Amino acid sequence: MAYIHNGRISRQDYFGVVETGTADLVNEATIFNACSISKLLTGLLVMVLVEKGILDLDEDVNRRLLAWKVPENEFASMKKVTLRRLLSHQSGIIDPKDSFSELNSSFSYPSMIELLEGKTPYCKTAAAVSIEPGSEFQYSDTGYCIIQQLIEDATGKPFEAAAYELIFQPLRMENSSFPTNIFEEAQKHFACGHNKDGEVLNGRYSIYPYPAASGLWTTPADLAKLPIELFHSLKGKSKTGISALNAKEMIHSHGQKWTGLGVFLEGAEEELEISSLGWGIGYQSMLVGYPHLESGLVIMTNTDQGVHQLNGIIGEIYHASTF
Question: I need a surface site. Which of 49, 106, 135, 179 has the fewest CB within 10 A?
Answer without folding.
Answer: 106
